[in-house]
Every structure is written in C-alpha cells, then in structure tokens.
Amino acid sequence: MRFFSCLCCGKRSDGKKKVKKTEPSWREFTPKELQAATNSFNYDNKLGEGRFGSVYWGQLPDGSQIAVKRLKAQSSCREEINFAVEVNLLGGIRHKNLLSARGYCAEGQERLIVYEYMPNLSLVSHLHSSESLLDWTRRMNIAVTSAQAIAYLHHHATPRVVHGDVRASNVLLDSEFEARITDFGYGKLMPEEDGATKTKNIGYLSPECVESGRESSSGDVYSFGVLLLELVTGKRPVERLNQTMKRGITEWVLPLVYEKKYGEIVDQRLNGKYVDKELKRVVLIGLMCAQSEPEKRPTMSEVVEMLMNESKEKMAYLEGIPLFNKKNGSEILS
Ligand SMILES: Nc1ncnc2c1ncn2[C@@H]1O[C@H](COP(=O)(O)OP(=O)(O)OP(=O)(O)O)[C@@H](O)[C@H]1O
Question: Where does ATP bind (predicted)?
C-alpha cells in the first residue's frame, strides 16, 4: 500500500506522523528486493515518468519508503560497467539538500537507482497546481537550500559535478519542505537524448548550452536563475503568447523591474503575503544568473551569499548592476 502525504501539511494519508531517521547507508540491491518493495513495479506504484525512465514508490522490510528509478534499457557491457562506477561515484556525494542515491541494482538489462522517497514530491507539483500553495517563507527556504546544494556540487563535491539539468521538477521536497536536488550528474549515466525528450528543459537552458549541447557550471547558474524567477512568480519558464509566439520568463520580468512593479511580478496567488525586500533581492539575483553572457553570471557560491545577505549595501550593489539599467539591460539578457 502506498501512503501519499498531504501537499500542504506533509502528513501521511494514513494519519501517522513521519519519524525522522538517520541517513541509510549506500548499498547494492538485488532485483528480488526491489521487485518485492515495489509490488513488481506495479502500475499503482508508479510515481511518474521522466526522460530516463519511470519512478516507482516502494517500501523495504524495515519500513522505509523508497523511490526506484527504472532506467530505460541500454545495450553494451561497457555502458553497464560505466553505470555501476558512476552510480557509486554519485552515491558518495552527500549534502543535506541533495537527494543522493541509497543504492542501485544492475543486472542484465535492468538498471535501477534507489532513492529515499520524498513525501512532498517535486517543486513543480506545487508551483503550477491549483491544489497547493507554497507560502513565502517556504519559497525563500527552497531558494536558499537549493542554491546551497548546487553550490556544493560545483565547489565542494569530490569530484566536482555539473548538475546539467537544474529545473523545478528536479527540486524534490522533503517532509519539512526543504529542497532536495535530484538527477545530478545524469549526463554521465545516460546516452545522448533524442530531440523529443530534450525539449522538456527548454526555457532553463542557457543560450550557449542550446548552441553547443555542452553542460557547464555557468549553464547551471543560468538554469538556477530561471528557477528562482519561476519560484517567486509561479509562472512557467516559457509562456505561450499565441499559436506562434513564446516569451521567456526573463523577458517578462525585466521590463517590470525597470518600472519597479514588483507587485506585478510576484505570484498573485500569494495575495500580497510576501516580504518586499526579499522579493526584490531574489528577482534581481534570478535575472543576474540568467544573463546570456556566461562570464557575467555569478558563481553558485556567490548566489548563496547574495541570497542570504540582507544588508542594504548588497541590495545597492545589485541595483547598480548594468543589467538593471534600462539603457543596456535588455541587450545583456537577449
Ligand atoms: N525520490 C522521489 N520521491 C518522490 N517522488 C519522486 C522521487 N524521484 C522522482 N519522483 C517523482 O517521479 C516522477 C518522475 O521523476 P523523474 O526524475 O524520472 O522525472 P522528471 O524529473 O519529472 O523529468 P526528467 O527525468 O526529464 O528530469 C516525478 O513526478 C517526480 O516528482
């Protein structure tokens, strides 16, 4: 049986409170164990489907809940060896706001990655759903904790990791609604994607990544900037204006910043319940990250510092950036 958590309070549907446990150790799972945990990958256990495969809810004999990602089949032995090596490597990268794998299973054609189950699912299911509303405090907490996780990947993890796919569906939320970033380093695990599946992260991809197809830490910063704007506006990264025209979130936000119309930028569903100076700070940082020239973007550790720095001096510094000067701003962004 599967227990879903209430989107607003995080309580399990069976009424039991979730008890915080110490992090389980990394290990290899057998196919039998994962079959038993997921009721043979039953359709009822399916949490969703991504570009790399399907994800199933499961429960281990010790009662812990897991999410098992069943990757699409690959072919050669070499890929199988790489898979084990890379999953081991990624499993060793630990940070409280990263959703690291608990383990894996590789047998025959099967490649499975086992994660801790996140009861509040992904950020995307809260930002663009009428059933759930994230309050301002939670949004700010998600902004900081997800920035810290990506900064850890870029600056402290061994080896350093480019996430390569920063976006709202890869920000999972734990029982306290803190961010747990997932799907990092997948570029290494999976073969090149086809065009049809790649379109899923359109709007988050930096111009240089669209052009070259290459991932980079400054590309992650760009995607994170778009994510920040999505978080405070509740709008999708790309909006369809009519049959032929689309508009990126930065193109919509920047003119409103020139006119200092922050009240129009913020998610209207918040009904005015937000903190002015925090909104301003996040919007400016988001735009700064999503500049088209990679060398003008901050690093992720600078982003963390700016998000947490409440001083007037920092705000004055942000407002003085050429991007926010109407004369040249839109050129820098496009
Ligand atoms: N650890 C987890 N706990 C709870 N739900 C999860 C977990 N991992 C994934 N999911 C859910 O499973 C679904 C599929 O996730 P998956 O990561 O495969 O795809 P995605 O992130 O939506 O897209 P993509 O693979 O293109 O990045 C999503 O709805 C996600 O919220």
Answer: 69
Does residue 51 line the site of ligand 1, with CB under 6 A? yes
The structural domains of the chain, with segments of one domain joined by +, span 29-116, 123-333
- pLDDT of 14 over the 60 cut: no
Note the CATH number of domain 123-333.
1.10.510.10
Per DSSP, the three-state class of 2 is coil
CB count in 10 Å sphere of residue 110: 13
At residue 332 the predicted structure's pLDDT band, cuts being 50, 70 and 90, is low
Q: Which atom of ligand 1 is nearest to the CA of 54?
A: 18
Which of 14, 62, 165, 267 is the catalytic position? 165
Return the axis-axis angle of helices 300-308 and 276-289, rounded to nearest 10°.
Answer: 170
Do residues 68 and 56 touch, judged by C-beta distance below 8 A? yes
Q: What is the CATH number of domain 29-116?
A: 3.30.200.20
State whether the beta carbon of 254 lies less than 6 angstroms from ligand 1.
Answer: no
Pocket residue to mutate for ligand 1, from 167, 169, 170, most atoms within 8 A of Cβ: 169
Whether the CB-CB separation of 162 and 153 falls below 8 Å is answered with yes
pLDDT of residue 228: 98
Any ligand 1 atom below 6 A from CB of 183: yes
